[in-house]
Structure formats: structure tokens, C-alpha cells
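tool_call predict_complex ligand=flavin-adenine dinucleotide
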Amino acid sequence: MDFELNEQQRIIRKMVRDFATNEITPLADDLDRNKEFPADILKKAAALSLLGVRVPPEYGGAGLDMLSYIIVLEEIAYACASTAVILSVHNTLGNGTIMKYGTDAQKEAWLPRTATGEKLGAYLLTEPGAGSDAASLATKAEKVADGWRVNGSKAFITNGAHCGCGILYAVTDSAAGTKGISAFVLDMQSEGVSSGPEEKKMGLNASSTTMISLEDVIIPEENLLGEEGRGFNIAMEMLNAGRIGIAAQSLGIARAALDEAIRYSAEREQFGKPINRFQSIQWHLTDMATDVEASRLLTYRAAVDYEAGKTIIKEAAMAKLFASRTAVNCAEKAVQVHGGYGYIKEYKVERLFRDARVTEIYEGTSEVQRMVIARQLG
Ligand SMILES: Cc1cc2nc3c(=O)[nH]c(=O)nc-3n(C[C@H](O)[C@H](O)[C@H](O)COP(=O)(O)OP(=O)(O)OC[C@H]3O[C@@H](n4cnc5c(N)ncnc54)[C@H](O)[C@@H]3O)c2cc1C
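tool_result ok
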């Protein structure tokens, strides 16, 4: 068992950490306050191949391994959790699905444009009536002469107002249960596709989250992804990989909260000494640091196993369950360490506290992760 990063992974980490420190950190608070999508940051990220982290070089990507990608997300989330979720959905659930299930023609048609950031990816699974119970989709794709006609609506779509390439899940056979769901690559500029207004969220304010309406949208036959009726399996398999990405986002948030708490508690004095001399503050810091390390081990292990082609259903769910709880706990403790200042928007921990919360909700709530783990335990 080797706990060291290889040389390439160390180089990637330094490159992305420098990028995040210089280009993202100075803007992150304003982007959150102004609810502004980080379009300029994404352009710079694309120039560093961060929109095609795992896409093979022949399609214009960096072709990196899963652990390198997870480190990218951790470093970006440390600076800005909104930017991290944009990249996570785009790279894992967008690019990743086409890489894994696309035909050569589909890869050639889409990956060179997504990997360079020309088209941002999205994952269109959730609906107003289908959240944790993702099999109960109402969006229908009906066979027509030139492909499929789709009607329905999708809820909470990350990158919704900015995406060009959606991975859509819709019912193609109402009588076949989960075997009646199929996956499609959806050109988001197609006639009949429209994005609703931005959801007003608790956090992740620089990310875009919208409803997507689909009204008589014609999807050409060649955009069916994988076999007809395999869509539910594809959605669930991609969520396994996605959950490692959300674990990495959580890890980045938790580490940022820990660092803010360490820094502040060394500077702030009460009763004539820095507050980090008080045991109760030290215990907050030690518990945070221990949980951050445990989250990293679970997350990196899931990533390495994924790269090795192992089944990672349980490992990914455990990493997401634990790392997301750690992000919420660490952000909460960091606010506490900051006292009244932690409640003031000028301090980064206030944003971390709001951003952390959703990590326990999307790509499967913590209750759903426990259901997944329980099934794997037999
Ligand atoms: C900011 C944001 C971004 C998102 N991005 C995307 C995206 O890009 N694409 C996409 O498809 N979706 C996206 N989602 C949707 C997200 O994945 C869902 O919100 C999530 O899966 C939960 O579904 P729900 O909100 O309908 O909650 P519900 O499923 O209604 O759950 C409500 C509560 O009931 C619990 N519950 C439900 N069923 C069970 C059960 N069987 N046992 C125990 N407890 C249960 C849940 O854990 C939860 O606590 C996003 C959501 C948010 C908030």
C-alpha cells in the first residue's frame, strides 16, 4: 500500500493549487455575493485542460488518471466550491458518460467541444417528482421517424443556464420500469429546450442551478447513448464516479474551513492569549484535522480503485457520506472558532458554512448513501 502521490499527481496538484490561489481565491467572495457565474475563470481553466481532465488527448483533453482529477476538484473547491461543482458535473457526469458509453462517432462529435470548454456539460436526471427515487421519471422520449420526441421537465440542473451538452435521462418504454429508461446526448441549443430562472440558493451562489423544460424536442437517433433501456444503469454507474467528485469537493471545503480556523485562532486573543491556547478550541481543530485526513483517505482510495477498474459502489458512497458530513462539521466548527466574526459575510467561513450544506444532498442524499452502503453489506 502506497500513500504517496506520484510525480505527475504532485505536479498537477501544484499547478492547480497555484491557479486556484492566484485566479480563483481573489474573486470567490465577490462571485458568491453577486451570484455571478465564473465564466472568465472557466476560460482560464479550459486553457489548463481542466474542462477535459480525463478526456483522452486525441479528443483534446488531458487524459489524466482519476486520482489526479480528484485532486483537481479538491484544490478548486478549497478556493471556490461553486467552481468545483461546475467542473465536477461537466467532467464526470458530462464528459465521463460520453467517454464510457459513447460510440466513436459520439465521442468525435462531442468530446473535442466539451473538453475545450466550448460546450459545458450537464446531467439531466432529477425531476420535480423524481429526486431520490430516480426511477420514477416522467420525462418521455417517444420514437418518431427521425429519432425521439422528448417532453418533460428537469429540476435543479447544475450548469443549467450555461450548458451546451446535456446527458438526458428519459422514459422510452413506460411498461418496462427501470429497463424503460434511456440516456441521450442532448444538444442544449435544440429547439424546445429552455432554461428556467436561476434557483435562489443557500450557497454555491456562483454556480447555475435551473429547471430545464423540454417541449417536443427532437433528438436524432444517433444521440441515443448506450443501448435503449440501459439509461437507468448508466445514470447510477455515473453517479458512483460522481460521488467521488463530490467527496473531493467536500474535502476541499473541509480543508479550507480547517485552515481558516487554524489561522484565526492563532491571531485572535481573548483573556490575554490566543484562543488556540484554550483546550476547547484545540479540540475543535484536532477533530476537524482528523476528519479531513479520514475523508482524504476514503476519497483517494475510491479514486484509485475506480482507476483500477474495481467496483466502487460502496467505496464511493462511503467517501461521499463521510466527506460531506466532514465538510458540514468543519464549516460549522470554523464558524464557532470565529465567534461573532464567523457570522459576518466578510469572513470566508460564512460562505463555507453555506456551501458545505448541499454536499449532503446532491448526487444522492446521505440517507441514500446509507441505503447504497447497506445493500452492499449484504
Ligand atoms: C444545488 C443543487 C444542484 C443539483 N444539481 C443536479 C444536477 O445537475 N442534475 C440532477 O439531475 N440533479 C441535481 N440536483 C438534484 C439532487 O440530486 C436532488 O435534490 C437529490 O437527489 C434529492 O432529491 P429531492 O431534492 O427530490 O429530495 P427527496 O428525494 O424528496 O428527499 C427528501 C428527503 O427524504 C429523504 N428520502 C427520500 N427517499 C428516502 C428513502 N427511501 N429512505 C430514507 N430517506 C429518504 C431524503 O434523503 C431527503 O432527506 C441538484 C440539487 C441541488 C440542491
